[in-house]
Amino acid sequence: MTETGKSPANPTKKSPMTPKAIIHQRFGDKACYKVEEVKDSTPNGCPGLAIPQKGPSLYRCTLHLPDIIVVSDTFKRKKDAEQSAAEKAIEKLGIRQTEYNPSVQEAWDDLAGRVAFMFANEFLSSLHPLSGHFRAALRREGHLNGCVPVSVIAVYDAKTGNICKYINPAAEANSLLVISLVLRAAAKLTDLVLISDEQQLSIQRRYPYPPEIIASINHESSLLESIPIEVIRIPASLEKAVDSLTLNVASTGYYLDVIARELGVTDASNVLISRIIGKASSEMRIYSSAPKQLPFDDFEGSLNVRASYFTGQEVYGDAILASVGYTWKSTDLFREAVSLRSYYRMLVNKTPSGIYKISRDAILAAKLPSAFTTKSNWRGSFPRDILCTFCRVHHLSEPVFSTQSNLLDASLDLPGSRKKLKVTQSNSVGPIGTFSCEVKIYSKNQELILQCSPQESHRKQTDAMQSTSLKVLSWLNIFFENPDISLEKLKLLAEKLDINFTPHSLFKEFSLCHSMHNFGSNVDEPSFIDIGGQNSGVTPSNGSLASISYSVSLFREGDCMKEHLESCEEFEFEIGNEAVLPHLETVVVQMAVGQSAYFRVELPPSEFILAAAGDSLATLSLLSSRSCKLEYSITLLQVTEPLEDRMEQALFSPPLSKQRVEFAVQHIKESSAASLVDFGCGSGSLLDSLLSYPTSLEKIVGVDISQRSLAKAAKSLHSKLNALVDSKEPSSKIKSAVLYDGSITKFDSRLHGFDIATCLEVIEHMEEEDACLFGDIVLSSFCPRILIVSTPNYEYNVILQRSTPHGQEDDPDEKNQSQTCKFRNHDHKFEWTRAQFEDWATDLAARHNYNVEFSGVGGAADVEPGFASQIAIFRRREDNVTNVELADPYVPIWEWCREDLLPPKEP
Ligand code: SAH
Ligand code: MG
């Protein structure tokens, strides 16, 4: 419909909407389509004698609308019958779909018409938010003509803005331009309105409103009370702090006049109003003083960086941030307190990690995670939504996603594959469909800022979108948190994340962010860590979900004053995914379920503290006295194992890990091995379990790079070994045990020539090239008699994930979509198919004079898709082992020796 009821400039232009869509827009659920099959389509068909027609059936649709019923012609397709019925209804009802597309002259006329409409008597009693301003202006003493600021017309009347766009397209993003266009249009309505002198950007009626109208308005609020409005003052100078203040508006007064006084200008006419910032549903706007003169290019005062950052428009001089105004909902003035806390929350909500923190309501605990592992492990807003929020708060266009579905044929790359391989697809696995997703971020003017196009593929379309979104967010976050980062470094990081960006547009769009966010140097190690309570032994490991309760306060060292900032009864996060502030994770991984801890850290940037603080004044006064720290108090409530472990335990009996141990034991027995080294021993599950079996082993060694895992391994091995020695009939003959901290891609001659070496579920945790390097080093230098290597069989994932307990992994909205087929554990760098694994192992064995055979645990070799864990057993062909060079890069971190074998102690 046109703005003023005139016919459109281009009535022949066809509406892009289908008839059904138009009906839906009008009637929604009230439109009811009934399609029937029309069997007899012969012109003179006589039902009584009907012989079933052979030809294609035809359909006719009856559309029931509240006032009319229409019947379509007959069609071969049901769809066409429905559209035809809708089209007939549109004709009957006279609904015409038109687009507003006026010529410049028509737009000028429409604009004048709009102004005339607003200044007519009737408008004063309308529900339009603008009418509230008209009434308030009229209530001012001695202003029987009303004197309405043009800025409110520009901001509160969407139609005015829309018309102005056709006069000058730049008006869309420039409310000052709208103001000057409205003034020019009003200038033509000489018999209706007057334009006040140049300093006052307002319009008033030429003749007063009729007395009865004025009387009814003044009657509206006879009570003389004062309405307090809590607002924020944002000084133009960055040196001056943002502070809160309360404006008092008389119930008969005009709130914009009060804001004007606060800004140091005469009245509402000189106040500029920004668009809505923050939540679209709020009335949060920034108010500043208008330039003294037209045209609007000589602002007094300097650029207000903070206010401009929020509005995305240039704001000059001091500004007020307030959530107040007339709305469609009520004729009463709507108002909401804007506290310092809300100001800082808006500021925090400008950075990607900040948006995540706010979404979790955990500003002093959460952090944007480094990877999108699984939907079920993600907490808080999803990356894609965060990216949309980010674009909205920075006044950019909506991100543009394009997903691509790839139907992999058998000769293509599978995720994580080392090289192109022929993959024999079994029927039960079926063709593997995957998705990849690209996202583009544009400025409001459609300039491309960045584009992220990862090659990696995902089983679900949404996972691809989330993962790409997170890459963009992580990169943007680096840009926000490191003001001094060089373009070179930024480019390098972008490359790693498959991002391409336009530096020029990036710096233009975010020119103010570095003067706004001050991330300074990062928090160092926590001090005063104190962990208390019984050690239940249940500790979090990478990939598991930890659930904690926490509370953070501001703590002043001198007098031990405390101010509570933030707390949460139950806060879940994924360990090892940087989902919380580093110091928090450092402490949590040292805890066991049921234990509590408290510790102190240096202060984060004050925007975070003030965004979290309930009472910002008390917090501010504490902050100003320096020597403050943050004090955390946490309790570890629960730990949920990573998906891989849960699956392995739930789906296999005995659990897959136990089957791996039994597999190793069998080879130890067969070979009468006396020495064993477990490469990548983790927390020692294999070494630990081996002790429960009677074997020929005398010496066991574990190597890992994770000190945390090694510490756990040492603890459990220590107690188990000592218990063994004490028992009457020890099941094992172990004489010594050692744990080394070291990378298995390096050779250490102390572990040369062992009888048996194991490397279970480790290689997939290394980059493929490191896995290959390990293979070469172990067979060429460590030279164990037997080497057992296990790794997940990628092809088996379909089965694992199909039987994942309900709700763990499956997205209810996507029940019909193909199964998730990600890696089993987010720390996995690759997962190989059987062909890939066999290819790697066969080649390796051949080069180092070993034989290799394949086996596995979970499932069966001859049932598709093979074993769940695939295993290669390498056997050295020659018995004589050549000497090797000495090397000892590994650091022993724990050693155990049977006491009766120790040299006698000195007295
Ligand atoms: N073998 C254990 C642990 C498997 S988890 C089990 O079956 O339970 C994988 C382990 O490999 C982790 O503990 C990790 O720290 C270790 N790891 C990864 N890369 C390594 C490297 N380059 N050197 C030594 N250990 C490594
Ligand atoms: Mg693994």
From TrEMBL:
Keywords in alphabetical order: Magnesium, Metal-binding, Methyltransferase, RNA-binding, RNA-mediated gene silencing, S-adenosyl-L-methionine, Transferase
Q: Which residues form the PPIase FKBP-type domain?
A: 539-602
EC number(s) per entry: 2.1.1.386
> Which residue range or ranges hold the Small RNA 2'-O-methyltransferase Hen1 La-motif C-terminal domain?
228-350
Superkingdom per UniProt? Eukaryota
The UniProt record lists the HEN1 double-stranded RNA binding domain at: 352-480
Methyltransferase type domain boundaries:
677-771
Comp. bias regions, Polar residues: 1-15
Cofactor(s) required for function per UniProt: Mg(2+)
Check the record and name the InterPro entries matching this protein.
DSRM_2, Hen1, HEN1_dsRBD2, Hen1_Lam_C, Methyltransf_12, PPIase_dom_sf, PPIase_FKBP_dom, SAM-dependent_MTases_sf
Q: What is the official name of this protein in its record?
A: Small RNA 2'-O-methyltransferase
The opening ranks of the lineage are: Eukaryota, Viridiplantae, Streptophyta, Embryophyta, Tracheophyta
